[in-house]
Amino acid sequence: MALWKSRLEKKRVLIADGGWGTELQKRGLPPGEPPEDWNIHRPEEVGAVALSYVEAGAEIILTNTFGGSPFKLAKVHLEGKVTEINRKGAEISKQAAGGRALVFASIGPSGEFMAPLGTVSEEDMMKGFAQQAKALAEGGADGIVIETMMDLGEAKAALLAARQSTSLPVAVTMTFDKGPKGFATMMGARPEQAAAELEKSGADILGANCGAGIDQMIELMKLLRSATALPLWCKPNAGLPELIDGKTVYRETPEMMASKLKALVQAGANIVGGCCGTTPGHIRAFVLERNRLTG
Ligand SMILES: [Zn+2]
User: Contact at 8 Å (CB) between 229 and 295?
Assistant: First the structure.
């Protein structure tokens, strides 16, 4: 049995890591600078973020490769470094994990629209994501997590690319907002539709990340659970970002978020981590609460 599956069976709920961008900024990454560049130039800072999550008790950590697709890296003139940046990102997290945590390597959106809406063909989209996924596998990743996806077509292209270019398990999580007509991604995909189509396309794990905080994530898990029996992974933000005195602030505390873990799990979540604004403190609180609930 795959490692992630046997660990999930044993613990019933796995805790994954929290925000990366916000943690790297605390370590001096200037706003607007590509975080992935630090895999090459500041690997010790990237490794410190990964290690802080392992030490908080996360059983799955991610990698600093969210913007590591060739499309995204081309925007910051790093298109020649796709393989190096992603391979290095996986190696840094693997080293920090030291066998204590599994490493699911992060793949974020391309930032491009797929044809016919945009100019990138499905084939080129897949080729780009395949290059990234292959480098992540070479760096030793135990799995891939395709996250923050808004377009179902692009999510499926990334999923198929990861499937074809690696033998790793693949998770896909999309970002849904709640509007007057219910939850949908910015490109109009509804949770139940996303779950059904991504399951059909071969995802091992499905889920949702980012968004407006943990209460909406509980509602989302119920919707996704109604459409699939696959394991669900959620990464709520620590609330919506608020700008206070020129600083971005997230208001949901570790205690507040951990107090809702039970409801999140009852709604269908199997793997729980955090997105923007969550810290090692949030993950530690999730671990303690999970141990209390399942112990
Ligand atoms: Zn986020």
Answer: no
